[in-house]
Structure formats: structure tokens, C-alpha cells
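ENTRY TYPE: paired fold submission
RECORD: A
CONTENT: sequence, then C-alpha cells
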Amino acid sequence: MPADAPTILATSGGRKPGRFTRFEFGALTEFAIELSVVDGSTPRNCLLATAVGDDALTIAQFYDMARVRGVQGSHVLSFPMPNVADVTAHLLDQDVVWVFGGSVAGLLAMWRLLGYDDALRTAWQAGVVLTGVSAGSICWHTGGTTDSFGPDLQPITNGLGFIPYANGVHYDSEPQRRPLFQHLVAAGTLPTGYATDDGVGLLYRDTDFVEAVTEVDGKAAYLVERGEHGTAVETRIDPRPL
């Protein structure tokens, strides 16, 4: 069954070291599966690893995670060409679409070139749960901060815009992230946005923020708004533990 409303879980996490495989799904990805309201059937989870150039190891590790979890895994390629005849139909047949991190600028360019942006919007509006980490979080928003162009972070402002907010990821683990995100919101380069420490996710229903959730104790989410006189106002959001 699809979710009962268009649903996005945008995260700075979602996988963890595995017992028998290199990685396993973390609590955030498990929550995305729960949100998809799968009942009595094997959950179907599709990986898009566009942001790492469809890296073969990333894809193989995803199938290991899916096998251990008992999930029916699939993936959609962008390089060297799509690997399914109808991407929209394939995504509509999923319960969850999980987007891996990497270059959000490259991801957005390839998706638009191949029409995956429209396919993902169709799936989202039909109730397929969209989730992802890092680049796979920023992409659903209007923009955020990215290392797509090099080690000095830069703004990205051409996100898909399914969610009408900016998005900051890795807020507590990469020292450039927080000050640049605040600066961009203060300057009006980015709109009001939500940011996540590592291990935290943001749940949106339709285009509304519902709650923050976490798979790591002590972490937080943040609302960052433009204040007076070119300042940013940051409000901590304590997430619900999963």
C-alpha cells in the first residue's frame, strides 16, 4: 500500500555497520519502510545511487542490506543508460525510494536530463515514500550546502523543490556546514530551512514539516530562519528517538 499522503523522510543517516554484511539499514530507513504502510507483503525498496555515479560497490552493498532485512531490492541506473524500460512505472511499483549521498549537483543534472525528476514527483504524489541521505536529502528541497564543486562548500539553489524549504545536512560533523547554511539563509540566498545532525531525519507530509526523528541519542534538528539586519535565527528541534 502507498502512504496515505505524499511522504518524504530527508536524513543525515539511515545505514549502520552490519553484523554479517558491511552495512545494514539503520532505524531511519526502517522508519521509511514503516511509513510506506506495507502490510502482508515484502517491502519493495529501490536505490538511486546517481550521486556517486551509480557506484557498483554502493549498489552491491544495498542489495546485501536488502537481503539481510528481507526487503525486495531494486535499483535504477543513470549511467551509462537507464536499466529499466519505464522509470516512472518502476518507481510507482515501489514502497520506498532510497537516494544515496554524493554529488547533489550531479544528481540533479542527470535526473533532469533523463526525466527522473518528473518520475519521482509522480511516485511521491502517488504515496511512494521518498527517503535518502545527504545529497539524497537536499535534493527534495529548494537547495542547501554542497561539496559537489570541491572541498569548500558552496550553495546549491536548484533542488527539486518538492519541499519548499532549504536543507542542511551533516550539521554537527562537518565544520563548514552550519555557518554557511546560516549565512545563506540570512542573506536570502536560501529560504527558511531545516537542518539535521548526523543520525537525524525530517519527516514531511505533503509539503509540511511534521517531526524530526533520530537513530542516534543526543542529536538534533534545527529550524533556521532569516532574522533582522542580515542575521539567521536558529531554533533547536529535539527529535523523537526511533
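RECORD: B
CONTENT: sequence, then C-alpha cells
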Amino acid sequence: MPTNRGLHAFAVALAAATVCLIVAGGLVTSTESGLSVPDWPTTYGQNPFTFPISKWVGGIRYEHSHRLIASTVGALTIVLAVWLARREPRPWVRRLGYLAVGAVVAQGVLGGLTVLFLLPTAISVAHACLAQTFFCLVVTLAVVTSPWWRRASPVGASPAGRVAAITAGLIFVQLLVGAVMRHTKAGLAIPDFPLAFGRLVPVLSTFPVAIHFAHRVLALAVAGAVAVCVVRSWRSGRPDLRRTALAVAGLVLLQIALGALTVLSRRDVVLTTAHVATGALLFGGTLVLALTSRRLPAASVPRETAGAGVLRGPLSEEPAWK
């Protein structure tokens, strides 16, 4: 099957644009600018695309920029879905494109409702979690449209892949808890680090303290799961999995450091936003590890799959995974 390099490059560009959107959203939350533009879908009653730059002041700069980037990402997603519909022979990949369009439209609606209902926690958290879900959809599209994926052969689920999938699920739970913490303003509910009120385990007397401490505990669980990913990937004998696992390990170390600095700096805007963005990259990295572990690169026979052959069953069917 021929590879459409332009399509793959466009999917990668969309993934990069989505990271920019997550950064913009993080800035809105970190600067508490969510209601700086109080109407939606207009901006102070004007067309958002013609709203004068001279009026981009204070929090309006962050919220309005976020909306414009979101609109750009939405348009790019529609273009990608149409491109997939016309050029992509695999039905399941085309369906992923349609799902991405549905997700980005729902994300826009949730963003609007967040403003119109004055930042309710439930909608704000749903908005944050759907952003991460959408990001993983476009990362998946970037991976499965790549030349590497087309050349590689499907294999059975490996230990590295299973651990990576579990880790990705755990990271999503952590992102959910982090979103609840941010939108309930519990980021400084425990003001010290690495201890919590001078103790290993604080008295969980209030919801903000409990959700903040849960976020810290889950961070340790994620770090442990990533360490297992590195060990499993190293044992696989595959250089590609080793490189991806090491990159994910670097991201989790950076994420923990940013989390600590966010507390110690009293929620510095740049550090807090970087913490949000790195969480998304960590989530995407584990997803890439889980996906690539299911393909065997050409002329590569790792120890844990040697002699096992390709996977039997639906995943080994040519139309589904080629």
C-alpha cells in the first residue's frame, strides 16, 4: 500500500497545533482568564476573527487567542478528515478522522458552555479531559499514517505494549484528577513539597487537600508505571521501543519537577502551564509506545516476539492494520 507522506505530515502538524492549543488553554486557566471574554461564540459582540488586536489586553489576550487557536485546530481537523475520506483506504483510519471531528466540535461546544455558565467545575473538567482525548486521537492518526507503520508488520501484544497501555490509562486518570484540582483551585491546598504540611500523609480534612494529595500519589504511581515501561521496552530488544520509553521517562521526570516547582513558586504561570503541556506530551508518548509495540519493524526480530509469529485474530487481518 503506497504511503501518502503529505497526509502523514499534515497529521503531525495537527498534533503539534493541538499541543499549542493545550498550552493556550493552560494559560487561560493559569491566569484565571476564562471569563475575560464573557460572551460566546462572539467576542464582545463582534466576529472573533475581526476583533481588533488593539483590544487584546489583559486576560482578553489569553482567552481570545485560545479561541482563535481552537478554531484553527478545528478547521485543520476537518481538512484531515476530508483528506482521509478521499485518500485513505483503511476504513478504521477514516473512522478515526470522523471521530476526531466529532471530538473537536464537542470540545468547542464545551468551551462555550464553560463561559456561558460561568466556569462550572463539571463542564470545565470535561473540557480539559476531552482536550487530552482529542490530542490522543490526532497522535494516533499521525502514527498510523506514517511510512514506518505501513512498512511494519502486525504482531501480538507484547509485555511492553501492555504496560504502556495500562500506563496511558493511569495517566488519563491523573490528568482528570489534575483538572479537578486546577478548576477547584486546589493547586496550593498543600503549600509545601515534598512533604504535605510537614508530614508524609496529611490530614485529609477538606476536599481540596484530598484531591491535591491524590494528585501527588498518582504522580508516584505514574512514575512507577513508566519505570516498568522502560524495563519492558529494554527487554524487548527493539531500539525503537527503547528510544520511545526513554523519552517517556524523561518526560515523567520533567513533569514531577514542574509539579514541585509549581507548588514552590506559588503557581507561577509559566511553570503551571508547562506542567499542563508536559502532561499531555507524556500521555501522547505512552500512547505512541503502546501503538508501536504492536508493529514489528522490517528486518527486526526482538527477543520477546521471536518465534511467536504474527498475532492471530482480527488485529492480524490485512485491511485492519496494514
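NOTES ON RECORD B: The radius of gyration is 21 Å. Residues 1-151 form one domain.
STATUS: closed
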